Automatic annotation (TrEMBL):
InterPro entries: EF-hand-dom_pair (IPR011992), EF_Hand_1_Ca_BS (IPR018247), EF_hand_dom (IPR002048). Residues 1-20 form the signal peptide. This is EF-hand domain-containing protein. Keywords: Signal. Residues 41-57, 70-83 form the EF-hand domain. Transmembrane segments: none annotated. One of its GO terms (molecular function) is calcium ion binding. Gene3D superfamilies: EF-hand. The keyword Signal applies.
């Protein structure tokens, strides 16, 4: 069971490590399921909110850095509803045209 929790935490960390940039769109399907899995891994004390301590313990760097945007009511914690609203922005997928421009500019 401990291994399963570790794997879930690692998956959440990888998902949260993604960086949203302009010219991206939300991927199709599965986003809400991914949000629930990430939430379960991050809310380690199951109190229904993510504190800065929890984010630091879970190494959720992307959410820590974007806390001002994720924490809509600015109470220093991210509720499940706030997390669900923030999640699509974090898990955006580059549009093919944006990736082509990026690849062309990096090969110069």
């Amino acid at each position: 069971m401990r291994l399963l929790a570790h794997v879930a935490t690692m998956m959440a960390a990888v998902a949260l490590g993604a960086c949203a940039t302009p010219g991206m769109h939300v991927g199709d399907g599965g986003s809400h399921a991914s949000s629930d899995a990430a939430w379960a891994a991050l809310d380690s004390n199951a109190d229904g909110a993510l504190s800065l301590d929890e984010l630091e313990r879970q190494h959720a760097v992307a959410l820590q850095e974007d806390l001002p945007n994720a924490d809509a009511d600015h109470d220093g914690r991210v509720s499940h509803a706030e997390f669900d609203a923030w999640w699509p922005w974090m898990t955006r997928v580059p549009e093919p045209a944006s990736m082509a421009r990026l690849n062309a500019s990096s090969s110069r």
